[in-house]
Amino acid sequence: MMNGFNLNDVLAVASAHPFYSATQYPPRKEDLPILLAKHRESGEDLKLSSFPLTWKESLYKEIARLTTDRNPQNGYRRETYISTTGGGSGKGLPMVFATDSQETRRQRAAIGSLLRHCGITGPGDWIMTMHVSGHLYRALDLMAETLEGSGAAVLCAGSQMEQDQMIETLIEYRVNAIAGDAGQIMQISRYISTLPEDKRKQLLINKVLYTSEPMTPAQRSFLGSVFPDVALSSVIGSAEAGPWAVSPPKMTEATKTEQFADFVYDQRLMHLEIFPFTIEGSPSTCTSDTLPLPDGEKGLLVQTSLQRMRHPLIRYVCGDVGSLHPLPESIKAELSLEDARHYKVARIYGRDRRVSFDWYGEYFEFPAIQEAMRTEAWGILQYQIIRRYDEKDNNPGIVLEVRVLRHNESGTISKEELTRELRKLFWVFENNEELFDLRYLSDYLGFVRSTTGRKVINFINKVLD
User: Fold this and answer.
1) Are residues 284 and 378 in the same domain?
2) For a surface tag, which of 58, 120, 352, 384 has the fewest beta carbons within 10 Å of its beta carbon?
3) What's the CA gap between 182 and 213, in Å, rounded?
């Protein structure tokens, strides 16, 4: 396993970087040896706790300035790999995060090794990845190279590849694994479920690896009906941190009915802290006396990457809710003693969305909506809520449009019953039913997607309050 950078060196560079100091420009690659040599000569031992938490708003304000500044002294634009966020509102150009190109390649190799050591993918696996390309999104090349780093062979399904062509590719090349974001995995799985039995028997899929978004219990249940003996796993990452943790099949299976997912990460590559929710909202709410929570306690996940040197990521409040736990014995037993002592578990509960939206005088909390949509008996594979103006007769009323894609496997309620449940959930009565637009979709084409990662956006607000 490739180790990360020394924390003290990373903090030394951070001290001279505009993300964390008053410095105008980041150091260029050729400046790093001189900067580090001076720091080591000083004998100063920097402490992570001396750095304040880094908030997305302040970080990206600085990134916006550095991205467009063409001054030759601006190290941010030189020899960099550009990542873009895959989510968002679907409007405007995405914000980018630059990392050193060579550091990015080393990180992919390291996470590829993590995939291999955890038994997720490795030599002998042939994988078809469906991560989209197009626009500025980088998931396709990122995951292809990471999977190759595990020893697997990778086929990249292009964005123009039809589903029947994907099936022929899976059969022709004896592909045993598929990878993509959760929505893409469900799309191909639903298509496979419609194939004749003799066609399905030609498929050799025994591994599925998903990324980018959580997979709900209903999605997992449906996936299991299509691939009864498949090993399901996941990779978590972001534009800022890159890929940093994996969820092996044993962990994915153990948490399939939980409201969280467990990921294995290497402490030589990533340092994690959990802070209480009271820090949220403003840096002023977190003082030097605010300490990280002990292992097992739930709070806001804060990342310090040991794989980012030239543009460090220090104590970054990434927006996920999590807790830290020791490695389970079942996973530890399959690892070398050297790796096992460095691995730990990050339990991720999802994004920190303690916000609400209103419609017809009622406030709806996102966590409550998300929990309801995960009801297994409802069979919802994907949903989207759009708050918009009424398009009929210049009606000034605000419409709540709900788009739903579901499966019809055994154990699910009828469409009529689900309609009644959704009307209850959103408080629909005779006096407001004309402003409630429930649409059942037959495939993923009916959803509004983000412009970069092409992910389904769960909530879209088209109303300017």
Assistant:
1) no
2) 58
3) 6
Question: What b-and-e string marks burial along 59-89, b requiring 16 or more CB atoms within 10 Å of the CB?
Answer: bbeebeebbeeeeeebbbbbebbebbbbbbe
In a domain, residue 90? The reply is no
Among the listed residues 256, 136, 141, the one whose alpha carbon sits nearest the alpha carbon of residue 208: 256
pLDDT over 80 at 159, yes or no: no
Judgement on whether residues 155 and 233 belong to the same structural domain of the protein: yes
Kindly state whether residues 361 and 346 are assigned to the same domain. no
Secondary element (H or E) of residue 10: helix 7-14
Pairing outcome for strands 398-406 and 316-325: unpaired
Residue 416 in contact with residue 342, Cβ under 8 Å?
no
Instruction: Kindly report the pTM of this predicted structure.
Output: 0.82
DSSP-assigned letter for residue 143? H
pLDDT digits (tens, 9 = 90+) for 432-455: 898 899 999 998 889 998 766 678
The CB density around residue 140, as the number of other CB atoms within 10 Å, is 20
Is the Cβ–Cβ distance between 253 and 331 less than 8 Å?
Answer: no
Over residues 191-199, the mean pLDDT reads 94
Q: Among 49-53, 122-126, 282-286, which is the least confidently predicted range? A: 282-286
Separation of alpha carbons 423 and 363, rounded Å: 15
